[in-house]
Design brief:
By secondary structure, the protein is an all-alpha fold. It has twelve helices and no strands.
């Protein structure tokens, strides 16, 4: 049996130093934190301009003064517009037959059609994405923050995914309605759990009951949970459980969405992240290097950028708002942030003439 080679401590230390120097070159070649901040600011500014231009166009198409309304409207030919037209006779029938008395069904309420509720949900989702990604850009600029921008990335991811869920043209109009009604049930239940507002006692409960009656009119089965804090739900055909963020992300980002969302959620709730160890778990926060924060933030922001790109494509059919030019912009920014997150280090090493990492 041959003797094992003696351990060469000097060679080991030299190799370690060389590896560290090589890695420093790679990090220096990545996009910097200020560059990431500038690109995110540009991207979100462009996105907002696109959305507002279509908001104005859609308002003017309805002969409304754009500066006098904050509503978003779908354009002709979109699924949201078609769903509105399909639902309107049912809304009128329900109001005539059931004579609901809650504010959401009043004849003077211009948004009593569930398709309008969907657009309102979508608007909130996109406003959340815009605000959170913009804030991530602001926080990453100094490379001083780690968990705050990652928590914002979770919120942006969930909001972008919910937007995709709402304007999904691959499902039937009945399925889109089911999703919208469930979200409305959740909103009303959250309001109910918040306690009564002076002068509006019992209104949330009344709206829930009337919404259940409307769903029944359309032939939908509403399940009333035994626990009061859970919203009524219309289950998808063939399913025994509510829709979930995890399932939605499995569909949008196969093999990546669920695990990344759980890692982001762990950070947001101060739990140990599984599969995505943050550098401040093994290094004192004040000893972290700027590149470590930048790398982690960039990596954890990628899922929200991926899903936002998908949402931008769905807006064309869903709202009639063509965001194809924005889609191209987001692809470029995603590549930049992926590079900052270390995904293209192998290519950087090749470009620098450095040996492959063992």
């Amino acid at each position: 049996m041959e003797d094992e080679a003696e351990f060469d401590a000097r060679k080991f230390l030299d190799d370690l130093a060389r590896s560290g120097a090589d890695h420093a070159q790679v990090v220096a070649a990545r996009p910097s934190a200020p560059e990431l901040a500038d690109s995110m600011k540009t991207l979100i500014g462009l996105f907002y301009e696109f959305l507002d231009a279509y908001r104005v166009e859609a308002a003017e198409a309805r002969s409304e003064e754009p500066e006098q309304t904050y509503e978003w409207y779908p354009l002709a030919g979109s699924t949201c517009e078609a769903d509105y037209d399909w639902l309107q006779p049912y809304v009128l029938e329900f109001c005539a037959a059931q004579k609901p008395v809650s504010l959401q069904w009043l004849g003077t309420n211009p948004t009593r059609n569930p398709s309008s509720w969907r657009v309102d949900h979508l608007k909130r989702c996109l406003n959340t994405v815009i605000d959170n990604l913009s804030a991530i850009g602001t926080l990453v600029s100094s490379a001083d923050h780690l968990r705050a921008p990652i928590t914002l990335a979770r919120s942006a991811l969930e909001a972008a995914a919910m937007g995709c869920y709402l304007v999904d043209e691959t499902v039937t109009r009945e399925e889109r309605l089911r999703r919208t009604l469930n979200l409305h049930f959740q909103d009303l239940t959250e309001s109910l759990m918040g306690g009564p507002v002076d002068g509006h006692e019992g209104e949330d409960e009344l709206e829930i009951q009337e919404l259940m009656a409307f769903a029944t009119l359309l032939g939908m089965k509403v399940t009333q949970p035994a626990r009061k804090y859970l919203a009524p739900v219309i289950l998808a055909e063939g399913r025994s459980q509510r829709d979930s963020t995890a399932r939605l992300l499995d569909e949008l980002l196969p093999d990546l969405g669920r695990s990344m969302w759980r890692s982001l959620s762990a950070v947001a709730h101060s739990r140990a992240a599984t599969g995505s160890l943050l550098p401040d778990e093994h290094v004192l926060p004040h000893k972290l290097k700027p590149w470590q924060r930048t790398e982690a933030v960039a990596w954890h922001t990628l899922p929200s950028l991926f899903v936002l790109a998908e949402l931008s494509t769905r807006m064309n059919s869903g709202m009639g708002w063509d965001l194809s030019e924005f889609y191209e912009a987001i692809q470029a920014i995603t590549y930049q942030w992926a590079t900052a997150g270390g995904l293209y280090d192998k290519q950087i090493r090749e470009d620098l003439g450095l040996p492959a990492r063992g």
